[in-house]
Structure formats: C-alpha cells, structure tokens
C-alpha cells in the first residue's frame, strides 16, 4: 500500500476534539492518550459516516439513516460544550486511491459536511455538503489548500434544499458545467440520496461524474469494520452455534458468528494454514482449530491438541485464548476490510502475547488501513520501530484535545539510551504523553 485510502480527518466544534487542521493518517495508526481524550470521538466520526451510508432508514418511525447516525454519536449534544448553540459542527474526510478515473487531477476526494446544531430545539441537520476532488488539495506540511478543486456537487450552499451537480459538456468528458438540484433533504446525506436526486436529470448517469465516485466511495466505506474488546461477548462467542448458510466473512462486533466466519474463510487454504500457525504461536501444542458441525445445520469451533483425539470447545478455553482467536481471525483474513478499527485489543491478554499481537497488526497493515487504540505499555513496546505511526491525544487546556504524531527525532536521545516506547509511556514521559496529568 502507498497512500492510505483514508488520508485525513478534520473536525470543527465537535465535542472535545480540536482538529481544525487535518489529521493525516497512515496505513497503520496507533492511538494513545488518557481516557476521555477524544480517541473514541475520533472513531465516532468514522462510524457516523459509515452509518449515514449503510444504515437502513426506519420508515415506520420516519427516521433517516443520517438521523439514526447522529443519534448514535450524541444527537444534538455533538456540539463542543464551550461553543454557544446554535452553531455549525463540521467534518471533513479525505480519500485517496478511490477514484479510478483517467484524470490525475481528481486522485483525491474530499467530503465536507457542515451540520447545523441547535441544542435548545434538540436537533442537528445538514447545513452544507460538498464533494470535490483534486491531486494535492492540501499540503501535509502547511495544511493549506494548494489547488482549485473539482466539485462533484455543492448542496445547500446558498439556500437550504438547493444545490448544483457537475455534468459533462460533451462525450470526451473533458469539460463540465453545473446543473441545478432542488428538493434536497436536510435529514439525509447527499452522498446517500444523490441517485434519487438525479432521477429526473436529463443527463444519463455516465455524463455525471458523481455517479462513479459515489459508488466507489459507498463500496469502500461500507466495508469499514469496528471492534471494541469491551464489546466482545465471550459468553456468546463460546455458546453460539450459528447456522450454516450465511456468507459472513467479517466477525460481528460481539463475535457471535465466529464459527460461521471461520467456516467461510476456511475455503481459502492459505487462511486455514495461517490461522493454525497463529494459534500454535500462542499455544504450542495446538494441532488444528476449525469449525465443526453440531447437527446438520449448526457450527461450533473445535480446537485439537497434539496427542488428544477429541476436540476442545471454546467453553473450555480461557478468555484470553478466545480473544486471541478472534483477533487472529480478523487480522489474518484474506478479505480484510477497507478500514479496520480495534479498540484496546490487549484487554484480557497475557503480556507474553503482546509481541505476537503486534506482529499480526503490522502484517495486516501492509494489506489494509488499520487504527488501533491502546493503553498498554507492553503492546506499545513492540511499536517502537514505527513511531511515525503513533498518534498521541493530548490536552493543553484540560478542555480540548489535540493530536500529535510521534517521531524518531522527538525521542532519539532516549531511544539511544535503550528506552522502548512502552517504557516512556509507563513513566508518563511528557514527549510521549498519554497520561491524564
């Protein structure tokens, strides 16, 4: 992988995050910082975008995907507590390697959202929305726009419910012009509703640049997967016997479909071998881990050990072992999500497994984009070799949190003295940060 697919995120007036300038991401990203420093809020910005595009609207309650997504991240309480209501909450997402066009000037795509938030009236709605592209819209060193963008659409720019969309002038697709749009809802993301908005357009889909890029973005974002170790239901994982048939290739947030995912992924010979080598690395006498039939239509995970013919089942395995099996299934999958986010994967794991888990994460990050949050100095020790991938959430005023990238230059003197990253985190070294005081 070269340029990370999700290139940066910027926010304004969103809760306690102060990200007026874009935060650039790598293919591997390790988030550190004290509790309440904004790590979960950062991830919520990403979940929000996915939910806006993938959640099914609840027509019975008259709730759109956008309204449901807003409710999940705090509803009308998404506004920074130090900003007077009503006010705009802004999000900016930049994607690279998304647009497969022949025009190099549109290699990056940015989605800008401005949400009108009124706490007294208890609502948040879309105030403005822009989708635009360009090659080097922002310079990562000075965080400034460097070129004029190409706009796929501008929604609610001058008047709510009104907007424009770019349409090609001619078949060679070299020039475009804007055509007006009206009746644009403020309770649905334009990226979600644009196909409906264009149903009455006189131009065919192939003459409207947003059709292709919208489809590519939606497919990319829909494959994002989010996991939180605290939400993994070990009891459900142990006792679940999912039915054969569904084509699940991603573990659910609770992990209940583990056996089904293993059954589907085991059709790939390389995955079967990789998973079993991974399990042998944590329990050396492992012979094989596989999904087995319990009756005609149900599945359970069977764990075979050397010298023992009968399998063990997950209700006979330790919590940490079950967790490691879940992480191995996710990180060794031949069908990695387009973005993988894992909150605190170290929970419940023995310290001796930290270097193994770190290597799994690093290897997966060569194939997809990964965000890991952690409070574990034992896990951080094994990311000392890639400090540029560590982002520290910190506060200067105890009310707003910022993000800084670590680097070898920042810590060079202490690294030469033999310190590891986790050591510096343990003692609260101010250069690394990560402590609440």
Characterization of this structure:
This protein is of the alpha+beta class. The protein has helices at 39-54, 65-72, 190-197, 209-222, 234-239, 258-265, 269-282, 319-331, 354-364, 377-380, 408-416, 421-426, and strands spanning 6-12, 23-24, 28-32, 87-96, 108-118, 123-134, 150-155, 163-168, 176-181, 225-228, 286-293, 299-305, 312-313, 339-343, 369-373, 390-395, 401-405. It folds into two domains: 6-222, no CATH class; 225-386, Rossmann fold. It contains twelve helices and 17 strands. Strands 2-1-4-5-6-7-8-9 form an eight-stranded antiparallel sheet, covered by helices on one side. Strands 10-14-15-3-16-17 form a six-stranded mixed sheet. It has a three-stranded antiparallel sheet with strand order 11-12-13. A hairpin with a 6-residue loop joins strand 12 and strand 13 (312-313). The relative contact order is 0.13. Mean pLDDT is 91; it is low at 100-105.
How many β-strand runs?
A: 17
Alpha plus pi helix count: 12
Shape: globular
Q: State the domain count.
A: 2
Largest sheet: 8 strands, antiparallel
User: Major sheet: order of its strands?
Assistant: 2-1-4-5-6-7-8-9
Report the uncertain regions: 100-105
Topology pattern, helix = H, strand = E: EEEHHEEEEEEHHEHHHEEEHEHEHEEHH
Helix content: 25-40%
* Assembly annotation: single chain
Strand content: 15-25%
**What is the averaged pLDDT score?**
91
Structural class: alpha+beta
**CA-atom Rg in angstroms:** 24 Å
Give the N-to-C terminal Cα separation.
37 Å
């Amino acid at each position: 992988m070269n340029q990370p697919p999700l290139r940066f995120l910027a926010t304004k007036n969103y809760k306690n995050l102060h990200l007026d300038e874009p935060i650039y991401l790598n293919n591997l990203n390790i988030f550190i910082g004290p509790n309440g420093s904004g790590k979960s809020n950062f991830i919520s910005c990403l979940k929000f975008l996915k939910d806006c595009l993938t959640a099914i609207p609840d027509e019975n309650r008259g709730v759109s995907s956008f309204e449901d997504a807003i409710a999940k991240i705090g509803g009308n309480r998404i506004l920074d507590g130090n900003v007077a209501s009503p006010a705009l909450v802004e999000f900016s997402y930049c994607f690279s390697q998304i647009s497969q066009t022949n025009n190099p000037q549109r290699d990056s795509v940015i989605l800008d959202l401005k949400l009108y938030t009124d706490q007294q009236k208890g609502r948040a709605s879309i105030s403005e929305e822009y989708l635009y592209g360009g090659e080097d819209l922002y310079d990562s060193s000075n965080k400034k726009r460097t070129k004029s963008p190409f706009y796929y659409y501008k929604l609610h720019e001058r008047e709510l419910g009104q907007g424009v969309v770019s349409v090609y002038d001619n078949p060679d697709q070299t020039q475009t012009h804007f055509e007006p749009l009206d009746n644009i809802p403020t309770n649905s993301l334009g990226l979600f509703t644009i196909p409906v908005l264009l149903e009455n357009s006189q131009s065919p889909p192939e003459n409207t640049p947003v059709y292709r890029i919208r489809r590519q973005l939606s497919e990319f974002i829909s494959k994002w997967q989010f996991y939180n170790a605290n939400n993994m239901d070990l009891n459900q994982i142990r006792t679940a016997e999912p039915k054969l048939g569904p084509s699940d290739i991603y573990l659910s947030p609770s992990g209940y479909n583990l056996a089904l995912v293993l059954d589907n992924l085991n059709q790939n010979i390389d995955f079967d071998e990789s998973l079993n080598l991974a399990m042998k690395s944590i329990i050396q006498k492992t012979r094989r881990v596989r999904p087995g039939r319990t009756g005609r239509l149900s599945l359970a995970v069977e764990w075979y050990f050397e010298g023992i013919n009968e399998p063990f089942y997950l209700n006979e395995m330790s919590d940490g072992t079950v967790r490691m099996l879940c992480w191995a299934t996710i990180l060794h999958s031949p069908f990695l999500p387009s973005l993988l986010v894992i909150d605190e994967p170290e929970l419940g794991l023995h310290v001796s497994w930290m270097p193994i888990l770190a290597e799994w994460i690093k290897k997966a990050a060569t194939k997809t984009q990964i965000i890991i949050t952690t409070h574990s100095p034992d896990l951080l020790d094994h990311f000392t070799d890639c400090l540029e991938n560590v982002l520290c959430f910190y506060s200067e005023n105890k009310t707003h949190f910022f993000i800084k990238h670590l680097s070898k230059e920042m810590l060079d003197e202490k690294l030469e003295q033999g310190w590891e990253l986790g050591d510096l985190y343990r003692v609260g070294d101010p250069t690394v940060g990560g402590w609440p005081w």
